[in-house]
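Complex 561.
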Amino acid sequence: MPIHALSDEVSSAIAAGEVVERPSSIVKELIENSLDAAATTIQVQIKDGGKSLIEVADNGSGIPHREVALAVERYSTSKLDTIDDLRAIRTLGFRGEALASIASVSRMVLTTRPVAEQVGTRLQVAGGRVGEIEAAGTSEGTIVQVKDLFYNVPARKRFLKSDTTERGWISRLVTRYAMAYPERRFEFISDGRIKLQTSGNGDPIEVLAEVYGLEVAQQMIPIPKASSERITVSGFVGAPFVNRSNRREITLFVNGRWIQDLGLGSAVTQAYHTFLMVGRYPIALLAIEVPPETMDVNVHPAKAEIRFENPGLVFSIVQRAVRATLLGQSPIQPVSVEPIWSGGRLAQTFEGSDRVERTLEPAAQSTMGLPVLRPVGQVGATYLVAEGPDGVYLIDQHAAHERVLFDKLMAQVESEFPESQGLLQAETVELTEGEAELVESNLGVLESLGFAIESFGARAYRVRSVPAAVSNLSPERALRVVVEDFEEDEMPLAAEKEARLAARICKRAAIKAGQVLSLEEQRQLISDLEQSSSPRTCPHGRPTMVHLSVAALERQFGRRG
Ligand code: ADP
Ligand code: MG
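Predicted structure with magnesium ion bound:
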C-alpha cells in the first residue's frame, strides 16, 4: 500500500484511544466540560458500568446553535486561542478533542441550549459520523449521552473490565469531583439507583460526610490557610487513626483538576510519618493552587499528569502544610461510651447514627500540647487514668512510653553528640549473613542513634554502647530489634530510616501492657508525655490516649441534653 493520509474517521479513532481509555475517562472529560461551563448542577448517569450508557447533564452555559457542529470536531475549542493562552490555562479543557474523541468510538447525542436561545439543538454522531442537526426542546444547559462505547472498536471493548470494576472507577471519580467542588450539586446514578447526591451548598464537611460517613468526616482536619505563598494548599487531612490499607483515598487537585501524581502523593504520606503504621495510608483531600504559568498540563491527552516548573518546591509546600496540620491538631481518638441506661430508651443506643453523634468529640477541641494532668491510677496494669481541666484521660502506658522514648531518641539524633550509655563490658553479637549486611549498610544510622558498634569478625559485632534512652535493653536485644524481620525497602529515605529504626527500638524498650507501675512512675510517664510535641500518637501512629470530656460525661449521666 502506498503512503497516504488517513481518513478523518480513522485518524480520530486512533487519537481517541489516548483520551478515552475506559468509561471513567469519558465521565472525567464530560464533568470537566460541565465545570468549565460554570454549571452548578451536574448529574452523571450510567448503565452497566458505563458500557451501554453514560449521560452527563448540566445547567451550564450551553453551546450556541451555530457552534454545535464545531464542538464535536477535533481541535475545536472555545477555551484557547493563542500560544500565550496555552501557557496560562485556567480552564480544565483546552485541547478541543474530548467530544470528538468520544463521538468517534460511540454513539453520542449532544443536546444543548444557551440561555440566550429559545430553542435547543440536538446533534447525533455515531462512530465519528456526524448526523443531522435538529431543533430540540430542552432546558438550559447541556446533556451529553454516550451509548454503546467501543461498538465500532471491538479490540478496545474486549479490554474493558467487569461492569462492577468500571462502575467503581466512575464512582470514585465522581466522588472526588464532588468533594473538591462542594459548591456544585453533584448526583451520580448507576443502573437507576442514586449512589451519591450532594447539596452544592458549599460545605465541604457535608460532602465528606456523604462520601465517608459522619464519623470519618468529623475527624478530617482542615488545613489552615497560608496566604503568603504563591503556591497554596487547602483542604482536609484525616486524623491518623482513620486510615486505609492503600493510597486510594489521597485525593489531589491542582488548580481544580484531579491529578494522580505519585510524587505529591508521597509528600502526603511522608508528612504522616510516625503518625501512621507502616503499610497504612491516610485519607486526604488537597486542593493545590499554583500559578498556571509554572506548570504544564499538556503532558498527556488525558490531562491526568502535570509537570511543575519546580516540583521540589511544590512537594515541600504540600508536605509542610500536611505535617503542620497534623502536629497542630491531631485529635485524641474519641472514646465510645455505651450508656447503660439512657432515660428508658436503651434501644436507641443501637441505632447507628444516634450513637455516633453522641460519642464523637469535635476534633477542633484538641490543641497542640496536653494540659497538665493529674494521675489518678492504673487500670488492668495497662492503662493510666488521669484527670485534666477538661475531663478524664485514659492513657495506654505502652504507647505513651513508646512516644516518650522515641522523642528522646530523635532529640539525640538531632544533637551533635548523641548521648549513649557506654557498657562496662562490650557485648559481642553473632548475626546471620543477611542480618550482618543490614547492620553494615546501616552503621551510620545506628551511630547517629547512639549505638557504638564495631565489626568483630565475619558476622559478629561488638556493641560498646547503646542509646541512653533505651539503656534498659540489652545490647544484644537492641541490635536484634534493628535487624529482625525488616525489609530494606521498608525505608525509602535516609531521614525516614532513622525514625523507623528508632520507632522499632522504642517499641521493645517501652513499658509493657500488664506491668504494674507505682504512682511515682505513673506521674513520671504522664509528665514526660506532657513534654512531647506529638503526645497523642505513638511513633507507629496508634493513639496514646482517649479523652472523655466533662461535657460527654454530663451527657452520659443525663445532666445535660
Ligand atoms: P475542550 O474542553 O478541550 O475545549 P471538548 O471537546 O471537551 O474540548 O469540548 C469542545 C467545546 O464544546 C468546548 O470548548 C466548549 O465550548 C463546548 N462544550 C463542551 N461541553 C460543554 C458543556 N457541557 N457546556 C457548554 N459547552 C460545552
Ligand atoms: Mg473538554
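The chain has three domains: 8-204, 219-329, 363-561.
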